[in-house]
């Protein structure tokens, strides 16, 4: 079975490619490298011991996608490609609607034109907005507080409408919580452009000395120690969720919406301490004002994924931090030499 992996050179995509190949899937990566490096795929090639076919192209470009579908008999798509920075989406909403929504629309058109109607889509816990309680189940009310989140919400709706119009579509919406960590080899990992927005890359860059000090955004939330609580999930567990979703796809007769999280929340300070323990590094921090748009606490109820995919996250916070540090310390500049 041949899988097209859009955004396969990116953080989650590159890790998922490894498990797809190990599970026996043939894959082809499709990426425009707007937020990734070809080096990530070369390193994945080394890990899996074969050359993964790669098409450089943009999901908004019909010709690029058609090239992929004409070169390979593609049975299903895992659709990671998209822009993902919340703050940037507020500054450049049209870029997010164009890339994420329009790009997905074109992808679906080209898929349908080639008789490929199976897609796994990267959604996000951001579609729960500010949840009324935790843990969060898939039937919680949906909302968005920024253009990035709205693009995910709209794509989910678009894919549901597509299924209503044609039940031959097989659609799985995976709502990720907070992916961190890296492949155990330490050769691939998250390589953000510029100053990291997300917690773990910021902690790792502070530990290595690229950043002077972590700002902890708020210590007056109603949480265990006042700092924000999130459901951090190891990227390899997340990758495994995609393989399980593909394996089960043919057994579903509706659009499946599935949380991928661990079910356990950790505060910023708990993550910081876990990172210090596993890396042996001291990470200086200061308490800073709350970040606009942040919520106090967000963690999944992952029991539906367990029931429907027989999937659960296996790696704990220490392993996540250890693997993030192995990647960061062996690649202080990410993929840049
Ligand atoms: P990433 O930026 O590392 O990967 C996205 C990849 O898509 C990159 O390789 C980029 O070059 C590519 N891409 C972007 N626009 C493209 C286009 N128009 N055509 C072709 N390729 C394009 O991000 P990631 O962290 O791996 O996230 C993957 C997906 O998961 C995204 O859709 C993201 O919104 C979603 N997601 C991520 C997180 C997270 O915290 N990392 C959480 C929830 C959901
Ligand atoms: C985690 C916690 C911060 C940085 C974002 C997106 C979400 C999803 C995942 C894609 C919070 C605190 C952070 C720092 C800090 N992406 N923090 N200092 O905000 O849960 O989610 O990434 O779908 O859509 O919004 O993740 O890693 O940015 O923050 O104190 O320098 O760490 O306040 O409590 P978040 P994050």
Indicate the topology.
Elements: E1 2-6, H1 11-22, E2 26-31, H2 38-48, E3 54-56, H3 62-71, E4 76-79, H4 86-91, H5 93-113, E5 118-124, H6 147-165, E6 170-176, E7 178-180, H7 199-208, E8 214-217, E9 229-230, E10 232-234, H8 235-248, E11 256-260, E12 266-267, H9 268-279, E13 285-288, E14 297-298, H10 303-309, H11 317-330
Parallel strand pairs: 1-2, 1-4, 2-3, 4-5, 5-6, 6-11, 7-10, 8-13, 9-14
Antiparallel strand pairs: 9-12
The structure holds nicotinamide-adenine-dinucleotide and UDP-4-deoxy-4-formamido-beta-L-arabinopyranose.
The site of UDP-4-deoxy-4-formamido-beta-L-arabinopyranose has 18 residues, from helix 7 and strand 8.
Any overview of this molecule?
The chain has 337 residues and is an alpha/beta fold. It has a domain at 2-182 and 232-261 and 299-313: Rossmann fold. It is 40% helix and 17% strand. It is built from eleven helices and 14 strands. A seven-stranded parallel sheet has the order 3-2-1-4-5-6-11, with helices on both faces. The protein has a three-stranded mixed sheet with strand order 12-9-14. A two-stranded parallel sheet has the order 7-10. α3 runs parallel beside α5 (93-113) and α7 runs parallel beside α9 (268-279). The protein is globular and about 55 Å long. The mean pLDDT is 98. The site of nicotinamide-adenine-dinucleotide has 28 residues, from α1, α5, β5 and β7.
């Amino acid at each position: 079975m041949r899988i097209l992996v859009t955004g396969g050179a990116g953080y989650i995509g590159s890790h998922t490619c490894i498990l797809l190949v190990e599970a026996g899937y043939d894959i082809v990566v499709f990426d425009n490298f707007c937020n990734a490096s070809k080096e990530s795929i070369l390193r994945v090639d080394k890990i899996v011991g074969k050359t993964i076919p790669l098409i450089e192209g943009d999901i908004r470009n019909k010709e690029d996608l058609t090239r992929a579908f004409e070169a390979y008999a593609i049975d299903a798509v895992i659709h990671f490609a998209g822009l993902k920075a919340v703050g940037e989406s507020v500054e450049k909403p049209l870029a997010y609607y164009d890339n994420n929504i329009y790009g997905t629309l074109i992808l679906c058109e080209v898929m349908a034109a080639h008789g490929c109607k199976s897609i796994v889509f990267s959604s996000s816990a951001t579609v729960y907005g500010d949840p009324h309680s935790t843990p969060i189940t898939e039937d919680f009310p949906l909302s968005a507080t920024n253009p990035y989140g709205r693009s995910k919400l709209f794509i989910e709706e678009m894919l549901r409408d597509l299924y209503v119009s044609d039940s031959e579509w097989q659609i799985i919406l995976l709502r990720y919580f907070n992916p961190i960590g890296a492949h155990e080899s330490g050769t691939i990992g998250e390589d953000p452009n510029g100053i990291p927005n997300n917690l773990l890359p910021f902690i790792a860059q502070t530990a290595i000395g690229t950043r002077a000090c972590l700002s902890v955004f708020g210590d007056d939330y109603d949480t265990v120690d006042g700092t924000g609580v999130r459901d951090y999930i190891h990227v390899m567990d997340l990758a495994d969720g995609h393989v399980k979703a593909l394996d089960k796809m043919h057994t579903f007769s509706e659009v499946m919406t599935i949380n991928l999280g661990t079910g356990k929340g950790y505060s910023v300070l708990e993550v910081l301490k876990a990172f210090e323990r596993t890396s042996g590094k001291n990470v200086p921090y200061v308490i800073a004002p709350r970040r606009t748009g942040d919520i106090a606490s967000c963690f999944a109820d992952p029991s539906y994924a367990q029931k429907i995919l027989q999937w659960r996250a296996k790696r704990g916070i220490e392993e996540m931090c250890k693997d993030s540090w192995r990647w960061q310390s062996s690649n202080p500049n990410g993929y840049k030499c």
